[in-house]
Design goal:
- By secondary structure, the protein is mostly helical.
- It contains 2 helices and 2 strands, in the order H-H-E-E.
- It has a two-stranded antiparallel ribbon.
- A hairpin with a 2-residue loop joins strand 1 and strand 2.
- The relative contact order is 0.05.
């Protein structure tokens, strides 16, 4: 059976049209949100103090730790 390029184009157009309709309905349900701020950047501090809980929270969230280090796996996509 030979593949007809015109049939493929028709099917692709049908898929795109269905996707467009589905996307339009999603946009109506969840309109774009926007946050207006007077300042877009936060002010940097001197770095002399930090939250005492930060280290504890980070280590609780880490799946693996080794002493004072958080063990993290390098993603395969970075190779």
């Amino acid at each position: 059976m030979a593949i007809n390029p015109e049939d493929i184009l028709k099917q692709a157009k049908q898929i795109i049209d269905k996707f467009h309709l589905a996307l339009a309905s999603v946009e109506k349900l969840a309109p774009e949100s926007r946050v207006e701020r007077e300042e877009c950047e936060r002010q940097e501090g001197e770095g002399t103090s930090s939250s005492t809980d930060f280290r504890e929270i980070m280590f609780k969230n880490a799946p693996k730790t080794d002493g004072d280090c958080i063990e993290a796996e390098k993603g395969a996509w970075t190779r």
